[in-house]
Amino acid sequence: MNHIISIHDLDRGQIDRLLFRAGEVTNEYAGKEPLKGKILGLLFFEPSTRTRMSFESAMLRLGGSCMNLGGVEVSSMAKGETLADTIRVVSGYADAIVLRHPKVGAARLASEFSDIPILNGGDGAGQHPSQTLIDLYTIRQSMSLDNINIGLIGDLMYGRTTHSLAYALTHYNARIHTIAPKGLGLPDSIRDNLEERGSSVIEHDSIEEIIGELDVIYVTRLQRERFPDPAKFFDVSSSYRITPSLLSDVKEHLAILHPLPRVDEIDPSVDCLPYARYFEQARNGVPVRMAMLTEVMS
Amino acid sequence: MNHIISIHDLDRGQIDRLLFRAGEVTNEYAGKEPLKGKILGLLFFEPSTRTRMSFESAMLRLGGSCMNLGGVEVSSMAKGETLADTIRVVSGYADAIVLRHPKVGAARLASEFSDIPILNGGDGAGQHPSQTLIDLYTIRQSMSLDNINIGLIGDLMYGRTTHSLAYALTHYNARIHTIAPKGLGLPDSIRDNLEERGSSVIEHDSIEEIIGELDVIYVTRLQRERFPDPAKFFDVSSSYRITPSLLSDVKEHLAILHPLPRVDEIDPSVDCLPYARYFEQARNGVPVRMAMLTEVMS
Amino acid sequence: MNHIISIHDLDRGQIDRLLFRAGEVTNEYAGKEPLKGKILGLLFFEPSTRTRMSFESAMLRLGGSCMNLGGVEVSSMAKGETLADTIRVVSGYADAIVLRHPKVGAARLASEFSDIPILNGGDGAGQHPSQTLIDLYTIRQSMSLDNINIGLIGDLMYGRTTHSLAYALTHYNARIHTIAPKGLGLPDSIRDNLEERGSSVIEHDSIEEIIGELDVIYVTRLQRERFPDPAKFFDVSSSYRITPSLLSDVKEHLAILHPLPRVDEIDPSVDCLPYARYFEQARNGVPVRMAMLTEVMS
Fold first, then answer.
1. What ipTM was estimated for this complex?
2. Are A290 and A58 in contact (CB under 8 A)?
3. What's the pLDDT tens digit per position in B97-114?
4. Which of A52, A57, A283 lies at the smallest CB-CB distance from B39?
5. Backbone dihedral region for residue A57 (phi beyond 0: left; psi -120 to 50: alpha; all else: beta)
6. Cis peptide before A261 (omega within 30 of 0)
7. For residue B268, what is the nearest residue in chain C, using CA coordinates?
């Protein structure tokens, strides 16, 4: 594996190997510096502190160094340089690059001009494979990935993370339950693709009607700006909110995930329940990205 | 000691230990890397280059690494995340955090949600304990901390550093002399607290009347924006200015401190006099912060 | 050599030594960490990602660490501090400083107040010695530096890099050919200085008339903002554009350089020709700056 651009490029074997390695990496490399002398370049054309920080932490934990390759506002792209030229230059400064870019396909394009591995740190509405691997890894900490019932809740129209996760779970024969406000449901093209790959996708009107059957709840943020009427936003968002009372009769191993930051989608009193896995999920960014970095650099 | 939030939390013994360690740390760890493999997270919600840089330099000198945890403008807080959630996430990426925040009490709050040590790098008008330790350390390089006469000059109303320093000096039985423009004197509550703790606080109308008795002069910046009338600012600021002629008859060991940056408060021709300790004070940020970092992380 | 401020300060022997070292440094220090424990401070008062990144990469490749000393917008200079004070403070945090500043002479001034080496990373329309060393190093990879014919193309009025390169080449007896739009030719004072130093400077009306004789073409960006009339800019820039057809009858070892970023000055189809040396030139920033860093710090 040279570049990691999209979760669609990875087969089940490759995903399983990365997840397994993420589970081993912290102990395996304790006190060692497998990437000592290596430089990870962080090329973020839009801000994404969590992605940047956990890649940076992962690289430092492996004994390597990081350098910021600059964002668009201070860079040569502001002077009209193409992404291809930028990549050709900065790939001379580092041993691998994490690229975050607002445009779909940017990471793939970059990989064609780079001598060194490109790790896609999110390209607009496109792919963000490390997030999907983190989601899978977090689920796998609580249960087998095979044959789970997962509920996707919130904005499933624009929520890139839910699309990639659902796609990846087709390798594991998941049943996918969707609960979304009107107009923010899963796009038909994505539903069709999931079903072609053998997953069932079941639409629900409320969380209550399905929550007892779920192994995983994946909550995403509803963005206020999708709702022209603020009152409407308030109504809708409150009915997609995870509260302790909603969780009174759920499976014992239920795992609640959220890509964070959350605003009001999960009541803070849920944080101390055993189902809450979202802070663990955020922290899992480090071992999962350690696994990715060792995969492409060693 | 786990977190370092406020100088008020430290007793005289703890302060003395940190100051002693600051004096030893450079030699003690020369060629060693006591914090190798550790990561210091810098979480600055407002800019403060000096504080950030000297913590960073201190961490690198100890063999550790630093990572920028991002400021508010690029962070998840801009999306409405609470400080508690931010801390819960980023404390998974580092081994200690220096927090700079515009709101009083932020560092204390952060410490309640963090698994790793929080070092307060300044919380608004609140505390900035490393600055106070640097001030004490710089005085201690020239004289014993006990029973000194210190003159606090400039804006004593809003000048956070002078409040904390005066407080800390009550452990050492200081006599505190204040010289401030009308309306910018030491707040009564702070004066009362200092006196309750056994220090005498004496107000003066001019620097000249007391300068011969002082062991330490602590100068702070007068901020133009506190004066509605620019001409008034000019008049006032020039009468609080430290010049060589003012220093013609002072104690031999007099130490002039300033938290920097200075603008016009100290004439540049003072820089080459033996009393000028403010550049040394700035550089003392490194050993003092090395002492703090080893205290909480090793 | 303590500071590196201007290419004018270096004699031919010193330049040759740095270029030689740049050629050796990657192999010589492979697996070693000659600057381990050292900190390079990056003090950039205006953005320059390429310069910053390649100094940072160079420092990391040598086993050292880097720290950002902050730009003007977040720094104490915004509060009215002088450059002298800033340098006196930050030179306590690092072992050498790369300074980028918008004002001519800033690096020289800084060197007078600094206890540690200052490397000029560009001071406005003034000097940028590491860029010139990179240019020389790149030429030297293809041919001897002595007695070359070099064509300087584009904006030679404001193009700092061409002035410094032409100056440095007078050590090597170069013949300098200039091809510039009206009003953007080489300033008379610079031409006179080059001729006094023994170089011939020959002005040409078009690239075509001289291209067959050139060993090196150095292309610079024409800036749209120099042309009040956009149509005029388009006309002029297209006649200073390097295309494959222009290169049909050139010397075999011709090297085309460009400080990058390029916009339209070089047709992308030139990239795959053997003459294109500009991406290599960008990458040469790392070994050349490694040579500079070891020169001043070890």
1. 0.92
2. yes
3. 999 999 999 999 999 999
4. A57
5. alpha
6. yes
7. C85
Contacts of B89 in chain A (CB under 8 A): 50, 260, 279, 282-283
- Does residue A224 sit at the B interface (CB-CB below 8 Å)? no
Would you give per-residue pLDDT tens digits along chain A (298 residues)?
699 999 999 999 999 999 999 999 989 998 899 999 999 999 998 888 889 999 999 999 999 999 988 765 555 666 778 899 999 999 999 999 999 999 999 999 999 999 999 999 999 888 999 999 999 999 999 999 999 999 999 999 988 899 999 999 999 999 999 999 988 999 999 999 999 999 999 999 999 999 999 999 999 988 777 777 888 887 788 888 999 999 999 999 999 999 998 988 999 999 999 999 999 999 999 999 999 999 999 8
Q: What are phi and psi of A197, to 5 degrees?
A: -85, 5
Q: Which domains does chain B have, with CATH numbers?
A: 7-127+285-297 (3.40.50.1370), 130-282 (3.40.50.1370)
Cα three-residue angle A49-B109-B74, rounded to 5 degrees = 20
Q: Which chains touch B (3 or more CB pairs under 8 A)?
A: A, C
* Closest Cα in chain B, distance from residue A202 (Å): 31
* Residue labelled with tokens 């990639």: A164
Question: What H or E segment, with its residue span, contains residue C288?
Answer: helix C285-297
* Cα dist from C34 to B224, C60, C297, whole Å: 48, 10, 9
The residue type of C139 is I
Rounded Cα distance between A161 and A167, Å, is 10
**Look-up: residue for tokens 């409040």?**
B163
Contact B279 C88 (CB under 8 A): yes
- Would you tell me the crossing angle of helices C160-169 and C129-142 to the nearest 10 degrees? 60
- Please name the member of C47, C57, C261 whose beta carbon is closest to the beta carbon of A85: C261
Residue B191 CB neighbours (<10 A): 18
Using alpha carbons, select from B150, B154, B139 the residue that is nearest to residue B265.
B154
